[in-house]
Amino acid sequence: MKFLFVAGLADELLPFRGDLIDALLNKGIEVHAALPDLELGSDLHKKLLSKGLLLHNVNIQRTGMNPIADLQTLWQLLHLMKTVRPDAVFACMIKQVIYGLMAASIAGVPQRYALITGLGYAFQGGDQRSLLRRLAQGLYALSLRGAKKVFFQNQDDLKLFQDIGILKPNAPSCVVNGSGVNMSHYARTPIPKGAPSFLLVARLIGDKGIREYAAAAKLVKAQHPEIRFVLVGWIDENPSAITQTELDTWIAEGTIENIGRLADVRPAIAQCSVYVLPSYREGTPRSVLEAMSIGRAIITTDAPGCRETVRNEDNGLLVPVGSVDELAKAMLRFVENSELIRRFGQRSYEIAEEKYDVHKVNQVIFNEMGIY
Question: CATH fold of 2-180+357-369, please?
Answer without folding.
Answer: Rossmann fold (3.40.50)
